[in-house]
Amino acid sequence: MKRCARLAPILLILCAAVAGAVFLRDKLSFEALAEHRAVLLAYRDAHFLLASLGFVAVYVVIVALSLPGATVATLTGGFLFGMFPGTLYNVCAATIGAVCIFLAARAGFGAALAARLQAGSASRLQTALRENQWSALFIMRLVPALPFVLANLLPAMVGVRLWPFAATTFLGIIPGALVFTSIGVGLGEVFARGERPDLGVIFSAPVLLPLLGLAALSALPILLKQWKKGR
């Protein structure tokens, strides 16, 4: 019974993710945002505080349950609230949602898996990750090649503590959030032209190279440790 209770949160997330992929993909899409943009803007103008709280709550649920539409939600933050407080809303909501997944995974199987790794042949890898967890977590957030949900689950599986996970998530997603929020700010013109936003901009050289530079800077403490050990 205790094991079932521990597994319940992560099983709920998995079921919600599957259901969301089947039933909510069209409702949490760019087309849905374009269709309802006038209503959203009118509600924001009439009830700014409620609109802000509602947006953050919906974004947290999208991330926490791994529903489709996280990118659209980030664009919506910029479209409705501008660079500020839109970026702040996006970063806070994404961090809270990520922490929810992390805690659910750790409660469900993360602690047991971490103990097995510690006792098994992967204990050396787990120890290395723990010794360099700040750098490793920053790299996972800064490099856009790793899916966001995996970056939430993997730390729970190797026994990363909550505080480093939450702090690196909040700080590490800021660069990407700035880029996507800025795209959202310009959605009014995109809607007027009847086009879709160019989300591939994050893989362009002016955006990707600084992100890779930050990732390399995050990896520097790991390289220095290895160099000292080599000496």
Quick rundown:
The protein is an all-alpha fold. The protein is built from 12 helices and no strands.
What does this structure look like?
With 231 residues, this protein is an all-alpha fold. It has one domain (2-230). The protein is 82% helix and 0% strand. The protein is built from 12 helices and no strands. The protein is globular and about 60 Å long. 32% of the residues are buried.
Compile the SSE list and pairings.
Layout: H1 2-23, H2 30-46, H3 48-64, H4 70-81, H5 83-119, H6 123-131, H7 133-142, H8 148-157, H9 162-172, H10 174-185, H11 187-193, H12 205-230
Q: How would you describe this structure in keywords?
A:
mainly alpha; 231 residues
Q: Biggest sheet: strands, sense, closure?
A: none
Mean pLDDT: 83
Please tell me what the overall shape is. Answer: globular
Estimate the strand proportion: under 5%
Gap from first CA to last CA: 52 Å
Kindly name the structural category: mainly alpha
Could you tell me the radius of gyration in angstroms?
19 Å
* SSE pattern: HHHHHHHHHHHH
Q: How many structural units, i.e. domains?
A: 1
Please count the helical segments.
12
Helix proportion: over 70%
| Low-pLDDT segments, ≥5 res | none
Number of strands: 0
